[in-house]
Amino acid sequence: MNYFKKIMRFAIPYKRFAILNIICNILYALFSTLSFLALIPVIQILFDKTRQVAVEPQWAGLGSMKDYMIDYFNFEVTRRVNEDEVAALLFVCGIVVVLFFLKNLFGYLAAFFITFLRNGVLRDVRNAIYDKILMLPISYFSEKRKGDTISRITADVNEVQTSFLSILELVVREPLMIIFTIIAMLLISPTLTLFVFVFLPISGFIISTIGKKLKSKSSEAQAENGYFLSLVEETLSSLKIVKGFNAEDKFRNKFHDSTSRLKRILDSLVNRQNLASPTSEFLGIFVIVIILWFGGNMVLIEGTLEGATFIAFMGLAYNILTPAKQISKATYSVKKGDAAAERIFQVLEAESTITDSKNAVEKTDFEEVVEIENISFRYEEENVLKNFSIKVPKGSTVALVGQSGSGKSTIANLITRFYDVNEGAIKIDGVDIRNMTKKSLRNLMGLVTQDSILFNDTIRNNVGLGKDNSTDEEIVEALKIANAWEFVKDLPLGLNTNIGDSGNKLSGGQKQRLSIARAVLKNPPIMILDEATSALDTESERLVQKALENMMKNRTSIVIAHRLSTIQNAEQIVVMQKGQIVEQGKHSELLAKKSVYQKLVEMQSFD
Ligand SMILES: Nc1ncnc2c1ncn2[C@@H]1O[C@H](COP(=O)(O)OP(=O)(O)OP(=O)(O)O)[C@@H](O)[C@H]1O
Ligand SMILES: [Mg+2]
């Protein structure tokens, strides 16, 4: 229940709905009990003339309220019976109808109000998870399965929402029903009611034993749910490879294994849950039978109980079964909700390692230099970068080259502060980037990642991502600089063309040029460009090349280059090997050294 309690915090803004729900539930429980009690005089008076009350009863204080009310009701009924039996019957029927109507009206209103709370909590928890996803550092997700996170924000939140209804039934409605019913039963016959009391704790024990394993089973089910969603997600995004490598069977088996595991868990979970109703009903029938036996004896043999009262009592005893059943069902539901809430809080309470420091400054412009000072960095155990230092003065271009895995993209990850360095510091105009707000830091930078990351949206929205309210002219201008306008202008829908999932309707070079246009439109003082490794044909390479040149013009750029053409004009070329700098200088100087760089150039490959 611990996690579920934490979720309750999300309900606080909606507490007025909870209060309205509780009020309606109290009235519901009250009218529900009264509607049974109203049947007693009907049976008594219509079928047993001895109980008629001819004289209007007098109010004699609270102590005899019960007698007064019964007598008064009987008096009213009697009066009408004596005048006109059919009219009396109609009167009583009317009362029963009104009571049942009120009962159901308040039942509906209770559900009506709580709907706002449940759906409000659903929305707020989802928003909180999504905001947290946006806030958590990239490293948090590198080992997580996407599907698992998706399942937390969908299935788990749903589970919590459903169990919210249960919790209110559990703590308000059904206990009240039971209390009111028991009071009514006590008024009718204390002895018989005693039998019911004996039964309640016994059945409570039996029900909680059945519910015990429910929480762990439920978390297992949710985890498996996350796994199979991940498989769907992965399969959808790699269909080409799955089909191209004839790996359908492998994926099918993986998926079927997962769904079979899920089926096994759900079979046992649902069947355990299914035990709730029959168990409580069966236990309840025991009580009914006991009442039938003892009550029947009281009516038939001892004569201490009236037939009509006995029938109403039986009705009440049966009436207590429904809430008892609901409570046992609700306990199970809340256990499942708790498991789901635990998974939600694993995300919500995950610690964000990359946050703005307390005195973080807002850095709005770039004046002089980007310095990487003696940094070391590791993702896991092994150092990926060791004692690495470079300086990038304003207006210049620094190119990073080196074998694949030498740590080039890692530098882009560190400058943008997707990760923090382990040692050393990265400074912009002398200010450590850890002392700037993340927002202002990233405002200074344009980022073109190694693999073009595009969204299933129009070209306009993809390019306009980094600049609010950009006009079509600005977008076209950026597309022109990125050399992308030449293909966008020929599209029938132009800027409104949807580019498909991850931009799949475009060619590799077109995708690259769109992501360059996106960075150009943002027009940041510092460009970080991680050039795509994928080989392009000469024509698109020339187009992309031109786009890069246009982009770097008059800007400060850090370019991770895989192509000689990109870097020849750089002021500084940094040659990396296993996270360290092995050579540094201009193209011609490095060639003259006839060392690592020269070899790379000879192979025309910097990977
Ligand atoms: N998220 C990560 N978690 C753990 N290790 C990582 C992660 N990303 C990269 N690495 C490791 O860090 C090293 C450097 O990777 P990086 O991506 O910086 O190489 P690169 O120089 O950009 O290579 P390429 O030219 O192929 O793009 C590699 O050995 C890689 O295995
Ligand atoms: Mg890389």
Task: Record keyword descriptors for this entry.
Rossmann fold, six-stranded mixed β-sheet, four-stranded antiparallel β-sheet, 23 helices, binds adenosine-5'-triphosphate, binds magnesium ion
Helix content: 55-70%
Biggest sheet record:
6 strands, mixed
Give the spatial strand order of the biggest sheet.
6-7-8-3-9-10
What's the rounded overall pLDDT mean? 84
Number of strands: 10
| Count of structural domains | 2
Category from helices, strands and their pairing: alpha/beta
Content of β-strand:
5-15%
Look up the CATH topology of the largest domain. ABC transporter transmembrane region fold
Tell me, briefly, the overall form: elongated
Distance between the termini: 54 Å
CATH superfamily of the largest domain: ABC transporter type 1, transmembrane domain
CATH architectural arrangement of the largest domain: Up-down Bundle
What is the C-level CATH assignment of the largest domain?
Answer: Mainly Alpha
Total helical segments: 23
Bound molecules: adenosine-5'-triphosphate, magnesium ion
Radius of gyration: 37 Å
What does this structure look like?
The protein is α/β, with parallel strands linked by helices and 607 residues long. The chain folds into two domains: 2-228 and 273-348, ABC transporter transmembrane region fold (Up-down Bundle); 369-603, P-loop containing nucleotide triphosphate hydrolases (Rossmann fold). The protein is built from 23 helices and ten strands. The protein has helices at 2-8, 15-37, 39-47, 65-83, 85-135, 138-141, 146-188, 190-211, 214-237, 239-244, 248-274, 276-302, 307-348, 408-415, 438-443, 459-463, 472-481, 485-488, 508-522, 538-552, 564-567, 587-593, 596-602, and strands at 369-378, 383-393, 397-402, 423-428, 431-432, 445-448, 526-530, 556-560, 572-577, 580-585. Strands 6-7-8-3-9-10 form a six-stranded mixed β-sheet, sandwiched between helices. Strands 2-1-4-5 form a four-stranded antiparallel β-sheet, with helices on one face. Helix 1 (2-8) packs across helix 13, helix 2 (15-37) packs parallel to helix 7 (146-188) and helix 9 packs across helix 13. The site of adenosine-5'-triphosphate has 14 residues, from helix 14.
